[in-house]
Amino acid sequence: TLKEITAFDNLSPHEGNRLFRQETGTSLIQYANEQRLLQAAYFLKENKNTTIAKVGMKYGFASKSYFGELFKKYFLMSPGEYLERCSISKWTLDPSKALEDYFSNR
Questions:
Q1: 63: left (phi over 0), alpha (psi -120 to 50) or beta
Q2: What single-letter DSSP state applies at residue 48?
Q3: What is the pLDDT of residues 38-72, one digit of tens each?
Q4: Which of 97, 11, 9, 80 is nearest to 41 (CA)?
Q5: Which of 98, 104, 74, 99 is CA-nearest to residue 59?
Q6: What is d(CA 51, CA 22) in angstroms, rounded to the nearest whole number?
Q7: What is the pLDDT of residues 14-44, one digit of tens each?
Q8: Which of 14, 41, 52, 102 has the greatest count of CB atoms below 10 A from its CB?
Q9: Phi/psi of residue 105, each to 5°?
Q10: C-beta pairs of 50-57 under 8 Å, 24+ apart in sequence
Q11: What pLDDT score does 26 carry?
Q12: Using alpha carbons only, how large is the chain's radius of gyration in Å?
């Protein structure tokens, strides 16, 4: 949690998040979500028979709908579209490359 991360430097969660955002341009929570989404996307690609809901729960998302919402916001496609895309072409988890590939094939 944010409180646990910032406790290492004796910072309040607010101060820790502010410093992280100042250095990286993103919040700690957004960074953690992005990392979980990348891991979930890789897991989905390698385990196509697993349900999307189970993958979302495995990577700490409270519900399938919240996982789907964040996934779509980050990858510009739903987890289902991502799985479909993985089954018809080689896919990369580099978001900039993934988006480039996605838009070039539309």
A1: beta
A2: T
A3: 999 999 988 888 999 999 999 999 999 999 999 99
A4: 80
A5: 74
A6: 37
A7: 888 888 899 888 888 888 899 999 999 999 9
A8: 41
A9: -100, 10
A10: 52/79, 52/80, 52/83, 55/79
A11: 87
A12: 16
CB count in 10 Å sphere of residue 36: 17
CB neighbour class for 67 (10 Å; exposed up to 12, middle 13-18, buried from 19): buried
Residue 63: its pLDDT value, please? 94
Residue linked to tokens 């990858």: 75
Nearest Cα residue to 33 out of 77, 78, 2: 2
SS3 8: coil
The answer to whether 95 touches 75, Cβ cutoff 8 Å, is: yes
Beta-carbon contacts of 72 under 8 Å, excluding residues fewer than 6 positions away, are 78, 79
